[in-house]
Amino acid sequence: MSEENKYTFENKEYRDTYRHTVSHILAQAVKRLYPEVKLAIGPSIENGFYYDFDAPFSFTQEHLDALEAEMKKICKEKLPLERFELPRAEAVAYMEGREEPYKVELIRDLPEDEVISFYKQGDFTDLCAGPHLDSTGRVKGNGLKLMNVTGAYWRGDSSKKMLQRIYGTAFPKKDELDAYLQRLEEAKRRDHRKLGKELGLFALMDEGPGFPFFLPKGMVLKNTLIDYWREIHRKAGYQEISTPIMLNRALWERSGHWGHYKNNMYTTVIDDEDFAIKPMNCPGGMLVYKSQPHSYRELPLRCGELGLVHRHELSGALHGLMRVRCFTQDDAHIFMTRDQIKDEIKGVCRLIDEVYSLFGFPYHIELSTMPEDHMGELADWDMATGALKAALEEMGKPFEINEGDGAFYGPKIDFHLEDCLGRTWQCGTIQLDFQMPERFELEYMGEDGEKHRPVMIHRVVFGSIERFIGILTEHFAGAFPTWLAPVQVKTLTMTERNEAYAAAVKEQLEDAGFRVEMDARNEKIGYKIRQAQLEKVPYMLVLGDKEQEGGMVAVRDRRDGKTTVMELAAFIEKLAFEVKSKAR
To answer: Which of 49, 220, 255, 440 is 20 to 30 A from 108 in CA distance terms?
Structure first.
């Protein structure tokens, strides 16, 4: 970070410090206006900050408005932030004297050798490790905003008291705040849950929280994505397999999931034996490989699977298609020799790049290393991490190191794509695994006539088909590219006289392989066009007497609203090119 950017929001450390200071300003405002409220914690987060409070009343929008006004006053007061330390006993007594039980609990739970520090600003003092800005005057009052209030269990424990969490954000300039709020409004307009309902793609029902229902148009979208997945994987030399949705406990113990992941698995008992619904496809993939002997000549062996997996997510974490309890993982497992690792990593990187480029997603890459909760020898981890790093470096792909965030069985490369609103989503991943082939005693016959252990790659491109649909829906605001749109063309009749012609046009388009609907309702053409526009249909064919007499179609383009009259054959040719080329 250059010196000139050190005290700007380009510097994450400064940005977090700034917003953490604003969280203290919020807490000070709360204590000034509502002194009976008890303080919990208030960190900075990715897009702002929050503070948890124990209040004898519910915070409303009126409370937030009053607090925001008070926060602006505190900024104008330019109060210096002063750090001081106290021994544990004095720190406890200090917070007991201020009647802050949550702070007392936090102090008592700190390690014995922990430095206990406080920050004072005017009449307000908070327990905090810091860091902070040197004055409340550094915060621009017209650049802060309190966003909303939610419930949050104390220390994230559902057995403890539910507190109220006030979320806010802050920027050093008002126009930056305005731009952020505008992006939030745009995000609401693009919300896949809203669009999914309006466009008839999927439904979320109380009878199955976290288990989405796909409606007919949503299934067209999903199947079109899957067809594309099969096409590119066939070209890349993958074979498709399918493994059972439920397997016995012995398998999950062998894979390590029973010990490392059991709390996220749905289990049952069949014939007095424990079974689990698969949260991942990989153990089944091990059994497929093991089902027959293999030679080095067959490697690398690339096996793809569109497997339906189930994971027990907390109800509060569920979010549309983005966080669900069952989803289709576009998995693949590549079995190879050690000297094939680098080339296979490169091949997967190229495949992921091809997919994200098709949809117009820029992305950045993270390399995640060995976590504390891991299996296997350090030497294998070092070799695996080195292989991933070397592949990325040889391809000239920039990447960041994410220390300690690898899977329990191996390091991984994560691809974080960026949508049109600048939000990032972790989708593609490549995980190198020496552990599972060892656990399952996988073998291949080497060129030397001896048995050897293969190395394995776990990888996904979409990650979750369902989640990727949610991301695409928001990225395109429901206006999917023509090749992907559930309905590609809609024929609209001007009058009842044109119905037979519209039906004939529809039939020709369907015979050419396109997805078409017809609107022959007794409504004005302007109403029909607006309806088709709301449904995000790429092309509308307006068919009246003139078109019927001349055997023509008036093509209205969703993107610019312009109408062009042409022969149906010419339109079919144009549409076929657009679909085949997968143009955006």
So the answer is: 49
- Which regions of the chain are under pLDDT 50? 1
Catalytic residue, chosen from 52, 126, 330, 331, is 331
381-403 per-residue burial string, b: 16 or more CB within 10 A, e: under 16: bebbbebbbebbeeeebebeebe
Annotated catalytic residue 364: no
pLDDT in the model for residue 5: 65
**Closest Cα to residue 141, out of 289, 21, 43, 56?**
21
Q: Look at residue 1 in the predicted model and tell me its pLDDT.
A: 45
Residue 239: active-site member: no
* Partners of 168 in the β-ladder: 49, 146
Nearest to 19 by CA among 39, 41, 44, 1: 44
Closest CA relative to residue 195, chosen from 361, 320, 318, 315: 320
Q: Which of 24, 128, 257, 282 is catalytic?
A: 282
Tens of pLDDT, residue by residue over 32-60, are: 999 999 999 999 998 999 999 999 999 99
Give residue-wise pLDDT tens across range 294-307. 999 999 999 999 99
Q: What six digits make up the tokens of 304?
A: 């793809």
Beta strands (DSSP E) in 106-214 are 117-121, 124-127, 144-153, 162-170, 202-203, 213-214
Is 412 in the active site? Answer: yes
Q: Are strands 363-368 and 399-402 parallel, antiparallel or unpaired?
A: parallel
According to DSSP, the β-strands at 539-543 and 489-493 are parallel
SS3 381: helix
Neighbours of 303 (CB within 10 A): 18
User: In whole angstroms, what is the distance from residue 355 CA to residue 311 CA?
Assistant: 26
Q: Is 326 a catalytic residue?
A: no
CA 524 to chain centre: 42
pLDDT at 205: 93
One DSSP character per residue, 164-185 reads: EEEEEEE-SSHHHHHHHHHHHH
The neighbouring-strand residues paired with 288 are none
**CB 336 within 8 Å of CB 344:** yes
Does residue 257 carry a catalytic annotation? no
- Active-site annotation holds for 331: yes
Query: H-helix or E-strand containing 65?
Result: helix 61-77
Distance (Å, rounded) from C-alpha 164 to C-alpha 181?
23
In whole angstroms, what is the distance from residue 243 CA to residue 258 CA?
18
Listed in sequence order, the residues at least 6 apart from 553 whose beta carbon sits closer than 8 Å to its beta carbon are 505, 541, 542, 543, 547, 565, 566, 567, 568, 571
pTM over the 0.70 mark: yes
Q: Are 321 and 462 in contact (CB under 8 A)?
A: no
Per the annotation, the verdict on 120 as an active-site residue is: no
169, amino acid identity: T
| Distance in angstroms between the alpha carbons of the first and the last residue of the chain | 36
Residue with the two structure tokens 């005290």: 7
Are 14 and 44 in contact by the 8 Å Cβ rule? The answer is: no
Whether residue 432 contacts residue 411, with contact meaning beta carbons closer than 8 Å, is answered with yes
